[in-house]
Design goal:
- This is DNA-directed RNA polymerase sigma-70 factor.
- It comes from Sinosporangium siamense.
- The chain is mainly α and 197 residues long.
- It has eleven helices and no strands.
- It is elongated, with a radius of gyration of 18 Å.
- The chain starts with a helix and ends with a helix.
């Protein structure tokens, strides 16, 4: 790419568009979004699978970059949508991990650190992993894209290609189940804080 400094100043849409002619411009998009996407994938599937999810997400994005709607300046919802599809393929593994952690002895020394460096599933408490395992995949995706992916409702709608009202109803359903499952635990206030958007 001719000028990296200029590329760093471009919007995501401009980078994707430039990558049609100069594929190396896509590397700037990777550098810009891979760390947050990695944290999200780590929380969903653990560290080992996160690398694969991020790699596959950007491979799919690169292969289909001409399908990106240049009307959106931010590629995060598009990338998180691809990541959600990649994670969806690994859903059975994810559910198995949640259920295994829910059956494990109560980890009294483990705490949830939402601002920590990608705590992964091992840092979650039993009620939370049990609740996540019981959620429908669509409800879980919405909840976790908002809480862990830090997307807005509108960005989640764009990422999952669903109406905004569906995002709200899925989040409401997931919150109700979370409140019931996490009642009396410190995780309830953390989930409510993470999902206020």
């Amino acid at each position: 790419m001719a000028d990296l400094a200029t590329a760093l100043e471009l919007s995501d849409a401009e980078l994707v568009h430039r990558s049609w002619r100069e594929p190396e411009a896509f590397a700037v998009l990777f550098d810009r979004h891979a760390p947050r996407l990695h944290r999200y994938a780590t929380r969903r599937l653990g560290r080992d699978a996160a690398e694969d999810v991020v790699s596959e997400t950007f491979l799919v994005a690169f292969q289909h970059r001409e399908r990106f709607d240049l009307g959106y300046t931010d590629a995060r919802p598009w990338l998180y949508g691809i990541a959600s599809n990649v994670i969806g393929k690994r859903l059975r593994e994810e559910i198995a991990r949640y259920r295994a952690h829910a059956r494990a002895p109560d980890p009294t020394e483990i705490s949830y650190e939402p601002d920590g460096d990608s705590p992964g599933l091992l840092a979650l408490n039993r009620p939370l992993v049990t609740m996540l395992a019981k959620l429908r995949s669509g409800d879980r995706d919405v909840l976790l894209l908002i809480a862990w992916g830090e997307l807005t409702y509108e960005e989640v709608a764009q990422a999952l290609d669903i109406p905004l009202g569906t995002v709200r109803s899925r989040l409401n359903r997931a919150r109700k189940k979370a409140r019931h499952a996490l009642e009396g635990t410190p995780m309830l206030s953390v989930m409510d804080e993470d999902c206020d958007g």
